[in-house]
Write a structure and sequence with these properties.
Blueprint: H1 3-16, E1 25-32, E2 36-37, E3 41-44, H2 55-59, E4 62-64, E5 67-71, E6 77-80, H3 82-95, H4 103-116, E7 127-137, E8 149-160, E9 170-175, H5 198-207, E10 212-216, E11 224-227, E12 230-236, E13 243-246, H6 257-268, E14 272-275, H7 280-289, E15 292-299, E16 303-312, E17 315-318, H8 326-339, E18 350-352
Parallel strand pairs: 9-10, 9-16, 13-14
Antiparallel strand pairs: 1-2, 1-3, 1-8, 4-7, 5-6, 5-7, 6-18, 7-8, 10-11, 11-12, 12-13, 12-15, 15-16, 16-17
This protein binds pyridoxal-5'-phosphate.
Pyridoxal-5'-phosphate (PLP) is lined by residues 66, 190, 226, 229-231, 254, 256-259, 299-300.
Modified residues (N6-(pyridoxal phosphate)lysine): 190
Pfam family, one: Aminotran_4
Cofactor: pyridoxal 5'-phosphate
Length: 359
């Protein structure tokens, strides 16, 4: 292929790559009992042929990850914290009696896909690749035991990252009826079956005129855990003395990698941080007294999103003046700058993708 053809192909891809579009390829690996993992195979993004007896469809041995690759100032791409996502997939696999994918294979799979499809990412700094690794029991067998064949794959689509833009604040509905997770359950891993039961609560939130659901602990229905598929931060105080508080990990909700990144970036910016239990009552009282000045959600998909209004069955309250506050904006900018290579990578989070091999 000549340089000209590559340019034309890239031009076509750019013209066609809208937010939400899947990219051209996927990476697939298979695991078989006795023989282990096959080598990663780059294929066109296409249907998978499945038996109606595919075990994952019946018994739910199915796990996911979600991470992003961002355009860098040198024109290349960098995947954000792929090894941390690899290790979380391993934890999810162990919890679900699934085979563990070696960390290096996970990294090779995501970088192979990002490298192959990098022309699909425009230079618009608001666009990134969302990479979705997933693994499921692909054995055709209805015996409820750990399957003997699994498929691991990575697909990808173009996502907006709100780079440099103001995202309005979200409204949150406190869910007391359906806990998302419980001690000893699977809330601290990324299991496919965690998500379908949340859709009903999400529908209730919409009926209550709110954007997102706030999840409480299952036992007391008192302690704030997460919002939607994102972790929460509360800002106590203001200015350089502000403290960023996030619910401490209890084992029942997800230890987000963005949560970890946010804690580190907040400290880098000179803020104090705390991991502690936060009750709905304290959240509300803190907002009413002015002690809690801001609340935001963070996650790979959510980036950093302000929460401006909260509703539960006793009424509504506003966080600060209801718009994204200065600490939220500063953290969001630091996170986005870190993704896009605009600040030094002191934590070793950015994983550069090698340039695509020319066929
Ligand atoms: C994925 C996810 C998050 C965010 O995790 P990140 O690693 O930051 O993307 C938070 N909560 C739930 C329930 C999730 O599924």
């Amino acid at each position: 292929m000549t340089t000209d053809t590559v340019a034309v192909r890239q031009g076509e891809a750019l013209a066609g790559a809208q937010i939400g579009d899947f990219t051209e390829h996927m990476v697939v690996m298979r695991w078989r009992h006795g023989s282990g993992w096959s080598a990663p195979e780059l294929r066109r993004h296409q249907e998978l042929a499945l038996s109606p007896a595919t075990a994952a469809l019946h018994y739910g041995q199915s796990i996911i990850e979600g991470l992003k690759a961002h355009r860098q100032p040198d024109g290349g791409l960098a995947v954000f914290r792929p090894r941390d996502h690899a290790r979380r997939l391993q934890r999810s696999a162990r919890r679900m009696s699934m085979p563990v994918l070696p960390e290096d294979d996970f990294v090779t799979a995501v970088e192979t896909l990002a490298a192959a499809d990098q022309a699909w990412l425009s230079d618009d700094p608001g666009h990134s690749f969302y990479l979705r690794p997933f693994m499921f029991a692909s054995e055709a067998n209805l015996v409820p035991r750990p399957a003997r064949e699994f498929t691991f794959a990575v697909i990808s689509f173009v996502i907006g990252s709100y780079f440099g833009q103001d995202v309005e604040s979200l409204s949150a509905w406190v869910c007391r009826d359906f806990p998302r997770a419980f001690p000893g359950g699977t809330g601290d891993v990324k299991v496919a079956g965690n998500y379908a039961p949340t859709l009903l609560a999400q529908e209730r939130a919409r009926q209550a005129d709110c954007h997102q659901v706030v999840w409480l602990d299952a036992a007391e229905r008192r302690w704030v855990e997460e919002m939607g598929s994102a972790n929460l931060f509360f800002v106590r105080g203001s200015g350089p003395g502000a403290v960023l508080v996030t619910p401490e990990l209890t084992g029942s909700f997800l230890p987000g990698i963005t949560r970890d990144t946010t804690l580190a970036l907040a400290r880098d910016l000179g803020y104090r941080t705390a991991e502690e239990r936060v009750s709905v009552d304290r959240w509300r009282a803190g907002c009413e007294s002015g002690l809690i000045t801001e609340t935001f959600a963070c996650g790979t998909a959510a980036v950093v999103t302000s929460v401006g209004r909260v509703r539960d069955e006793t009424g509504d309250w506003t966080v600060g003046d209801g718009t994204p506050g200065p600490v939220t904006r500063r953290i969001r900018q630091a996170l986005v700058d870190c993704h896009h290579g605009l600040i030094p990578d002191t934590h070793g989070w950015r994983h550069p993708v090698p340039p695509a091999a020319r066929p």
